[in-house]
Amino acid sequence: MRLYDGLIKFAKKNTCNNDEEAKRMIMLLRVLMCCVFLYLLGGSILCVVTQIRYGLVMNSALILLLAGMFTASYYLSKYKTVVIFNLGMTLCITLNIWLYGWSSGVQNFLLLLILVYYFASYDNLHKKIGFSVIIFIVYMALYLNFVGRENPDISLFERYLIRGENIFVMIFCLSLVSYIFSFASHRMEGELIAYNVYMTERASQDALTGLYNRGKVMEILHDLSNKGELFSICICDIDFFKKVNDNYGHCAGDKVLQSLAETFKALMPDNEGYVARWGGEEFFLIFLGLSGEEALEKLFFIQDKIRESSVDYEGQKIKINLTYGLTEYSHTKPLDDNIKEADHKLYCGKKKGRDIVVF
Predict the structure, then answer these.
(1) Would you call 217 helix, strand, or coil by DSSP?
(2) Catalytic annotation, pick one of 21, 158, 281, 328
(3) Cβ-based neighbour number of residue 200 at 10 Å
(4) Catalytic residue status for 281
(5) Overall pTM > 0.70
(6) In the sheet where 322-328 sits, what is the strand order?
(7) Under a CB-based contact definition with an 8 Å cutoff, are residues 177 and 28 in contact?
(8) CB 328 within 8 A of CB 291
(9) Which contiguous run of DSSP H or E holds residue 303?
């Protein structure tokens, strides 16, 4: 695992491309080059053991070529790096088939080139199809020239060993390519989901208080109305809120709204109901599972708590009161009529002197 992490960090260093997708592709190509280097190194050791000098010379030349490709990747664009990688790998595959024979399975690495190219060019289907056709032609050409040919200097055991090595390296490289791009895809998908959740919450929240906004509470009311559940609604308004802004400033008014929102959230847990900012200094309360009489008792408790509290602002304590219009939701009336009834009761409370609950 440490070796893998080291390869990744080394491959990421000094990439000249600014695009994240290009950086990821070039990093992947460098890691694949490191894998091919280890593969060629193993082939060189085998050639030393079997005393196949021409194989050792060939592998040494390919290692030098690979070193040049690796170095060039720090200066070339993503597209050029992919091109030299494919050309270099095609040459490497061809020479290794010539050295080890068709039965070694080296030709299967051509499939890896298709996978790499497809990930490297997302937006050009014609080029992808064309590249696949080219790989097919190369594969058939190699098949017609090398099928049935085996190197007499390599024993049957060594052929099995080489085939096993090729299968292992091929599976490892395919897994590596799939992991890197699936990880990136899953990460972007996760970020997109998180962003959508964030934007949905922002769209349903009041920016100042963090409570639900009017649009969200209308959705909740429609849902509750469609389910036919028992609930009561209340519209409440801060009394003489304009005086707070005039006497203490608008920042103090914002502080009052935020403090009141926190009080409502503490007194109205999610499992008991909903609190929303209806607009300006008005708030909307939904009491779940409560009749009008039961909601009235709850509302008296909330009223007392707000009367006992105050808002600290720049060393001053601001006392606030509210007027409440409460009604039990009637499923025999349209939604708008229920809201108008609560609003009318709020208006009556204002006329009667404020700081009262009208039910």
Answers:
(1) helix
(2) 281
(3) 11
(4) yes
(5) no
(6) 273-279, 282-288, 231-238, 322-328, 357-358
(7) yes
(8) yes
(9) helix 292-308
